[in-house]
Amino acid sequence: MIYKPTAVDGTWTAKELRKLPSQERDAILAAAALVAEDRYRRDSQLTDFEAFGKEDLHGESTAAPAG
Length: 67
Hints:
mainly alpha, 2 helices
């Protein structure tokens, strides 16, 4: 049996999701993943950033340029 999410557009808490049958929970999470994928593909502000700034990296590295 294929479960269709009952509230894809709603907000689910982890507690609420745990109470659902695994197939329904998986369907909701899969639908949410598709929405997230679409948003990430269309909105470059979600992905156009640097993971680390100069002030975020501490310590010395063997790959650091001599200076």
